[in-house]
Amino acid sequence: MDRLRFVLRAQRDRFWPLKVIKEHLLEHGIDSEVTSIASRPGPSSALQAVRLDRRGLGREASVDEDFLAELEQYGLLEEGALFYGSTELELVRAARELAEEGLHPRHLVMLRTAAERQAHMIRSVARPRSRAGDSAAQGEAQDFARDLGESMITVHGAVLRMSLREH
Question: How many other C-beta atoms can be found within 10 angstroms of the C-beta atom of residue 92?
Fold first, then answer.
């Protein structure tokens, strides 16, 4: 049970894939804190603020211009952005890894669509908590939306793992 709690906490709090969690457990065991994962290098290490231009994004994610253009074409990256942050870098790296296995950006459109629908659902639940002109209420609504988003990610991951296990 402790091992399972550790895995779930690492996924929820740090968004680490199972492969990285497994490596961490083999190296440190369950007695280590989940927060220690953030100091490890890896594909989903704690997101640090970055500001990359298009060339820097391609270089950091090890992709070429054509791949970035394809991500834009399918709505996975904002077209014409001047700068990209850690979220975009994480997305491009993951998309590259999927493409290496045969799942190209055109295959990821359904993920984008599902995420947009989830974001709409979250905003519709959080919006009533935000009052115009009340910055504290707006901040609380943003925090609430972020928490709902993290719960959605957890549910999505669990449903995907269960579906893969069944087949």
Answer: 24
Q: What range does the domain containing 117 cover?
A: 108-166
Confidence check: pLDDT of 13 > 80: no
Are 99 and 115 contained in the same domain? no
Q: How far apart are CA 46 and CA 58, in angstroms?
A: 20
Q: Is a pLDDT exceeding 90 seen at residue 30?
A: no
Least confident range from 4-13, 18-27, 35-44, 82-91: namely 35-44
Residue with tokens 């603020």: 49
The radius of gyration of the chain from alpha carbons, rounded to an integer in Å, stands at 18
Q: Is residue 90 part of a domain?
A: yes
Report residue 163: phi and psi, to 5°. -65, -40
15 and 61 co-located in one domain: no
pLDDT grade, residue 35 (50/70/90)? very low
**Count of the separate structural domains present in the chain:** 3
- Report pTM: 0.65
C-alpha–C-alpha distance, residues 5 and 22, integer Å: 13
